[in-house]
Specification:
Blueprint lengths: L1 E6 L12 E4 L3 E3 L4 H4 L2 H5 L3 E3 L5 H14 L7 E5 L1 H10 L20 E5 L6 E3 L2 E7 L7 E7 L2 E5 L8 H6 L5 E7 L7 H7 L4 H8 L8 E4 L6 H9 L6 E3 L5 E4 L1
Parallel strand pairs: 3-4, 4-5, 5-6, 10-11, 11-12, 12-13
Antiparallel strand pairs: 1-2, 1-14, 2-3, 7-8, 8-9, 9-10
């Protein structure tokens, strides 16, 4: 399983791209920077898109992905999200006001984007991948994902505060190779993190105790304006399992 971090930040600025993780060039998790982060030819090879929740830094490039690849694929991008997320995207983004409704272009029978509803805690199979969506502690009905292919499984939950269910599921997973999760705000902004349902290094220290042991942890969604402080505070945790996702377009093989 090749995991490419097209963008792994919780904000956008030169050198900082919003969340988009691409697995094996085919399965995309969130669309915060996929159109700006990889070449159009690579974009056109994506088959499936999982959307964790409807915040802008996770959906904005759906608009440009559809525009870039319009007429190129011969088949839709298959988009998987829960019902509130799908409705939010259709109402506020692909509404023929902010952006064309690519779920009906070039026509409803063969659209550029085709949505599928997913249910929390019900597995689905997409090609070679088995995916378990699990609710996490973030707004708009956010989901984390446990993704399995062949002999490797990986946990992804990029927007969440302290949560429980996904770690209980993760402890039951065989061949778990990596955990991708988040630290958004420095410790001094603990109330902001709590109110917005994100992590600080301090809350992540407690969260790690809930996770399966001996699995590498990759921390992303750092807010660009706090990255230097976050690096220091995360390093102060002195946990050898942690890798900080401070750069865009990096890849890992599991």
């Amino acid at each position: 399983m090749l995991v490419r971090i097209i963008g792994g930040h919780g904000g956008v600025s030169p050198g900082f791209k919003a969340t988009s993780y691409l697995i094996d060039g085919r399965l995309l998790i969130d669309a915060g920077s996929v159109a700006s982060g990889i070449q159009i030819e690579e974009q056109s090879h994506i088959d499936y898109v999982l959307i964790s929740h409807s915040h802008l830094d996770h959906i904005s490039d759906l608009a440009f992905l559809a525009d870039n690849c319009f007429g190129m694929k011969g088949r839709p991008f298959e988009i998987y999200a829960n019902t509130p997320v799908r409705e939010a995207i259709k109402t506020h983004l692909l509404n023929d006001v902010i952006w064309p409704d690519f779920t009906a272009l070039p026509n409803k029978e063969n659209p550029t984007l085709r949505f599928h509803d997913i249910k929390p805690e019900m597995s689905l199979v997409l090609g070679d991948y088995r995916i378990l969506p699990v609710p996490v502690n973030h707004s708009t009905g956010a989901l984390g994902f446990i993704i399995e292919r062949k002999n490797a499984s990986v946990v992804f939950t990029q927007d969440t505060g302290p949560t429980d269910a996904i770690w209980e599921y993760a402890k039951q997973v065989k061949n778990l190779k990596a955990i991708f999760t988040e630290v958004s705000f420095p410790n001094a902004l603990s109330q902001v993190a709590r109110d917005s349902q994100h992590h600080t290094p301090a809350t992540m220290k407690a969260e790690i105790k809930k996770m399966p042991p001996d699995v590498p942890i990759f921390l992303g969604h750092l807010k660009p304006n706090f990255q230097s402080q976050l690096f220091k505070e995360i390093e102060d945790l002195k946990d050898e399992r942690i890798t900080i996702l401070g750069s865009s377009d990096t890849s890992y093989v599991f």
